[in-house]
């Protein structure tokens, strides 16, 4: 059951697609106060008590563990490429969580705070037994979800997913291995990635093109010198089942004569300052304007621009810099210069020095800049002008919505690959996300694992981190371990930053070790695809914390380094360097599957409980639930070549034998064409 309470005058974010009647005014205040202390005096403040053993799940893309207790989360989409433990904000704003009271099922509650501006969730941090939520304005739609079924965690999640609409479904090839790097500059660079993967026998489905393919970082341009006869290049690779996935940035270069700029200016499609002039932000192309993605006409205009690339045969995109990231603004620059000029160095004390320094380091992604521009939005059928800061978290969401709607108009029956950096709840209907600029750090494998279930709770199913890490240098061991987890994530992309060590699998010793792992990913795609489609079509989760599946087992509440993948599988990745084994917890008897370094599959029954298990670097180990069987396809180099009809099965022998006798498959594989929107029943 879902209850909605509206306070003030909430901005309609279109996160929720289902009509839910709202309580308003004093009635809302009174009824919502049943859940905690509400104050609307200065902005929005809400305090809820927790039990000692309460566990909190949710918050999508965020720092912290699977249990979100003990820290603050600030929803304010942020381009911060250093994801260290103390960071409160990342690129997404996912204000949904569940308070789980173990053993007392029916007191669990789900909360969604539909608020597009900055909002802070203090989850048992300032006070160990309280949640404190605060926002600058009181204009919020609050949704409370009470569980109905036997399993409150799964039930609340399903109810929430039902009201926010069906998750994005990528083309099947998007489940293949994707290679990326910021620094592929030319056709030859990309060709060499393709050739080296082919030579190493490592499956590959797509190669991302980072900003260097454009002319001076101008959206919807292709540098013809670096990429001569681009459409031929696209089709040549596609003939061998490999797709190119170009990046699109949020800012449009200011350059007279550049069509996107000219059209945007002429039609007032760019965000404006208070004085009515187009707002200027410095990003990769230099001075740019931001398209007003909140404005339906501007959105349609920008979305249809993707046709420039789809006309060349491109079928997938990634949208970047859409928090929006801003290196500088004109105002910010001149204020800093002014302040520096006015500094009297002879009187500079130490505080003065730090203030002086902050003037410069604070120029990028500065909140003051977000307050300097406006959007034209339609609210209740009327056009209104809204300050960006107030709806900051909707920008990336609506950029990706623009792309999805445009692509849909360009080819309504086709599935395009689309993923974004910034997001808000609701964006899951239009595309996936990658988790942004992580680092080649061991802790970031764990961070990815922790984020996955929370993202799925918010409907974001097509997701994954930059495998091997974006910033800093990856070791061979780190990349291998990361792939051993990443081969279970729907978005499986190896990506690295400019200037870091080369990170393509073939750059390391014995690429065959990588080939074996990625080959196995391809063998698992019938399972991964089926489980993905189940999650999307039935509003369930692809990655679940163990406690969602074994709600009676209190030990599961503290398992922070294992996940259920789909209905049948459990992973327990190695998260430490120089280790050949780890402790695991089995909530029931399970079948251990071990892919050896000679590509044999060894299956062993392991009883419920705690075990120390050997995980040599060159083996892949995971678990299958009792009573479950998993399909395996024959190895293939491309998803297009995977044979969904001739499968073998691993897992529970009895299930497999019984099905064999009955002449039915022990696992029901979902099959469709994989690239049109003609989904089948599941
Ligand atoms: O300011 O396009 O997160 O994946 O490689 C950096 C260059 C801009 C940030 C993205 C990253 C991408 C990079 N971009």
UniProtKB/TrEMBL annotation:
One of its GO terms (biological process) is carbohydrate metabolic process. It comes from the Bacteria. Residues 44-122 form the Glycoside hydrolase family 31 N-terminal domain. InterPro entries: Gal_mutarotase_sf_dom (IPR011013), GH (IPR017853), Glyco_hydro_31_AS (IPR030458), Glyco_hydro_31_C (IPR048395), Glyco_hydro_31_N_dom (IPR025887), Glyco_hydro_31_TIM (IPR000322). Residues 168-530 form the Glycoside hydrolase family 31 TIM barrel domain. Pfam families: Gal_mutarotas_2, Glyco_hydro_31_2nd, Glyco_hydro_31_3rd. The keyword Hydrolase applies. One of its GO terms (molecular function) is hydrolase activity, hydrolyzing O-glycosyl compounds. Residues 541-629 form the Glycosyl hydrolase family 31 C-terminal domain. Keywords: Glycosidase, Hydrolase. Belongs to the glycosyl hydrolase 31 family. This is Alpha-glucosidase.
């Amino acid at each position: 059951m879902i209850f909605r309470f509206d306070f003030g005058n909430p901005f309609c974010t279109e996160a929720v697609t289902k009509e839910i009647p709202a309580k308003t005014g004093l009635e809302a205040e009174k009824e919502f106060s049943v859940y905690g202390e509400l104050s609307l005096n200065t902005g929005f403040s809400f305090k809820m008590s927790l039990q000692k053993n309460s566990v909190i799940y949710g918050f999508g893309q965020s720092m912290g563990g699977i249990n979100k207790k003990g820290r603050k989360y600030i929803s304010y989409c942020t381009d911060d490429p250093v994801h260290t433990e103390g960071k409160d904000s990342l690129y997404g704003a996912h204000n949904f969580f569940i308070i789980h009271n173990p053993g007392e099922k029916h007191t669990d509650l789900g909360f969604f705070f539909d608020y597009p501006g900055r909002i802070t969730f203090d989850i048992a941090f300032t006070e160990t037994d309280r949640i404190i939520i605060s926002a600058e304005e009181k204009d919020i739609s609050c949704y409370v979800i009470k569980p109905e079924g036997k399993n409150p965690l799964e039930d609340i999640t399903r109810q929430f997913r039902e009201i926010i609409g069906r998750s994005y479904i990528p083309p099947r090839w998007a489940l293949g291995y994707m290679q990326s790097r910021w620094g592929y500059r030319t056709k030859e660079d990309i060709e060499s990635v393709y050739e080296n993967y082919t030579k190493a026998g490592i499956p590959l489905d797509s190669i991302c093109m980072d900003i260097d393919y454009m002319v001076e970082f101008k959206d919807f341009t292709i540098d013809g010198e670096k990429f001569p006869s681009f459409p031929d290049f696209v089709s040549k690779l596609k003939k061998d089942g490999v797709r190119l996935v170009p990046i699109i940035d949020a800012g449009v270069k200011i350059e007279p004569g550049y069509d996107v700029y000219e059209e945007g200016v002429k039609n007032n499609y760019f965000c404006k300052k208070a004085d009515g002039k187009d707002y200027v932000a410095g990003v990769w192309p230099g001075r740019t304007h931001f398209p007003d993605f909140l404005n339906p006409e501007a959105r349609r205009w920008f979305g249809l621009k993707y046709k420039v690339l789809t006309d060349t045969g491109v079928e997938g995109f990634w949208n970047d810099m859409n928090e929006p990231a801003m290196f500088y603004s004109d105002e910010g620059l001149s204020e800093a210069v002014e302040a520096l000029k006015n500094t009297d160095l002879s009187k500079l004390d130490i505080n003065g020095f730090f203030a002086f320094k902050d003037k410069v380091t604070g120029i990028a992604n500065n909140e003051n800049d977000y307050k300097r521009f406006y959007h034209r939005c339609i609210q209740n059928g009327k056009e209104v002008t809204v300050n960006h800061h107030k709806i900051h978290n909707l920008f990336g969401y609506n950029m990706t919505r623009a792309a999805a709607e445009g692509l849909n108009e360009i080819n309504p029956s086709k599935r395009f690959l689309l993923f974004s950096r910034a997001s808000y709840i609701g964006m899951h209907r239009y595309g996936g996300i990658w988790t942004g600029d992580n680092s080649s750090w061991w802790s970031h494998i764990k961070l990815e694992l922790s984020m996955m279930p929370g993202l799925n709770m918010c409907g974001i199913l097509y997701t994954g981190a930059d495998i091997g890490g974006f910033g800093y240098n990856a070791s061979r061991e780190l990349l291998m371990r990361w792939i051993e987890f990443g081969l279970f994530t729907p978005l499986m992309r190896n990506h690295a930053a400019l200037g870091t060590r080369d990170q393509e699998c073939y750059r390391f010793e014995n690429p065959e070790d990588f080939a074996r792992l990625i080959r196995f990913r391809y063998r698992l795609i019938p399972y991964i695809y089926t489980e993905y489609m189940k999650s999307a079509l039935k509003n369930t989760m692809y990655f679940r914390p163990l406690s969602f599946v074994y709600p009676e087992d209190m030990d599961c509440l503290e398992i922070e380094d294992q996940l259920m993948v789909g209905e049948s599988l459990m992973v327990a990745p190695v998260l430490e360097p120089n280790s050949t084994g780890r402790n695991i917890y089995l909530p029931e008897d399970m079948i251990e599957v071990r892919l050896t370094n000679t590509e044999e599959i060894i299956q062993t029954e392991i009883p419920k409980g705690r075990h120390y298990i050997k995980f040599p670097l060159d083996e892949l180990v995971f678990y299958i639930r009792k009573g479950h069987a998993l399909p395996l396809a024959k190895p293939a180099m491309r998803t297009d070549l995977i044979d969904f009809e001739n499968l073998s099965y691993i897992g529970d022998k009895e299930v497999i034998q019984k099905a064999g006798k009955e002449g039915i498959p022990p696992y029901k594989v979902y099959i469709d064409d994989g690239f049109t929107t003609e989904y089948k029943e599941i």
